[in-house]
Every structure is written in structure tokens, then in C-alpha cells.
Amino acid sequence: PPQSKGKEQVFPPQSKGKEQVFPPQSKGKEQVFPPLTKGGLGGVKTTLNARLKWVQELQSIPLFSAFKPNNEIEEKVLSLSLLIRELQAKFPSNTILCVDAGFCRRFAAVAWLVTEIDNFFSAANIAPMGWGINAGIGIKLAKPEHPVIVLTGDGSMAMHGMDLITAVRYQLPIFYVVSNNQGYGTVYQRFQNNLQAAQQTLLPPLNWVSFAQSLGVHATKLQSLSELNTIVEQFFQLNATFLLEVHTQLIY
């Protein structure tokens, strides 16, 4: 450590001993590595076998979870994970999914299959609400040849929903899906056993279809997954900014 000398710090002089040589040892311009031992090769084989066993265990796990949501009004809402899978099945294989914070990201990370490089976008480090609404605009401008789906929630729409007008202004055919569970889902789950705190995480039943239409966005509400194919066809025929509102679960 430096020695204190008034306000200045004085560092001790470095020793002028011999330099330390670490393997590989230097021999002119060539590098000489120590020979591998049988034990070293055996260790590699053991590691590879262990890794192969781990991969086989992963492959034996079902791709999609078969859990059943715990919700009293389950029959009145749609499964978010099933909706994501249906969307991917009905959109071209080069479609990009941009997901917002909360339940959207949690379910999309499991339900959406990444088939190409850069076809899944999420702000995983800081989870900003409403980020996906704007990021989808930037992604569509950067990759106009790719269809873009933005999966967002009603909480995120309350933060940055007005930015839909930017997509309309630049005539960007982005397919916005609003998962409306009338609450901040992940926060509600944390406080659901505390009635007073949980009530503060609920949101009013806003009509996001009417909101989007007021900004010039084509919008509709999904009542059943059987309607999805017609809605997707309508989106591609319009070739314009589109919003689909879907009522989903608040409790999982």
C-alpha cells in the first residue's frame, strides 16, 4: 500500500528482481506448452459426459408447462401463453416479438420459440414499463422487412400508450397486443395476501380499443382464439398500425 507523506501518496519502488515467467513459457517467438497428462484428458472426458447427461435431462423436460391458472374467472379470460403460441403460428417465421415488462415478458420467455437471430427483444436488465411500445417502433424502422409484434400490458399502456401516435405518424404496420388484466400483475401477486396493498395495484377497466382508435390506430378486441386467424389476416391486408386488446388473468 502507498505510504502516507503529508497530502502526497508515495508508492514504494518496484523491485528489480527477475521477472516471473508463467506457463506457457516463452522461448524466443515460440510458445512452449507443458505436455498434457493422461489425467487431464480423463478430466475432459468426464466433463463432456457430465455435460451430455445434463443436455439429455433438459431434452426430457416438456417444452410447455401444463400448469392450470388459479383464477375464479378463468372462463372469461384468455391464456396469455396460449395466445403467444397461436400468434407465432399465424405470423411468418421471420416475425419479431418485442415484449414489455411484467407478465408479458414472463410468459413470452417460455411460449415464444426463437427461430432466428434477433427475433425476440426484451429489456431484461431494468424492466421499464412501456418500453416495448416504443422499442417496437425503432425495431420496425430498423427492420422494415420483418413483421413486428409488440406484447404489452394495460399497466405499460398507461405509462406510454400515447406513443402509438408515433407509429401511426410514420405509417408503421406494427401489431400491438395489449394484455389487459386490469392491474400490475407481478406486483399484485406479491401483495395479494395483503388486501390493502393489493388494492393499490389494481387498474380501472379502460377501453384500450377506443383509446387506440382515437389516435388513428386500427383496433379490435379478441373474444376467442378462434377469431385470431381473421384478425391477423385483416392486419396484413390493412398494412397499418393495429392494436388487439385481450383480457387475461391477473392471478396465476
From TrEMBL:
Domain of life assignment: Bacteria
Keyword list, A-Z: Thiamine pyrophosphate
One MF term in the entry's GO annotations: magnesium ion binding
Record's keyword annotation contains Transmembrane helix: no
Region (Disordered): 1-38
Signal peptide: none
InterPro entries: THDP-binding, TPP-bd_CS, TPP_enz, TPP_enzyme_TPP-bd
Cofactor: thiamine diphosphate
GO BP field: isoleucine biosynthetic process; L-valine biosynthetic process
GO cellular component: acetolactate synthase complex
Start and end residues of each Thiamine pyrophosphate enzyme TPP-binding domain: 100-246
Family listed: Belongs to the TPP enzyme family.
PANTHER family assigned to the protein according to its UniProt record, in alphabetical order: ACETOLACTATE SYNTHASE CATALYTIC SUBUNIT, MITOCHONDRIAL, THIAMINE PYROPHOSPHATE ENZYMES
Protein name: Thiamine pyrophosphate enzyme TPP-binding domain-containing protein
Origin species: Gomphosphaeria aponina SAG 52.96 = DSM 107014
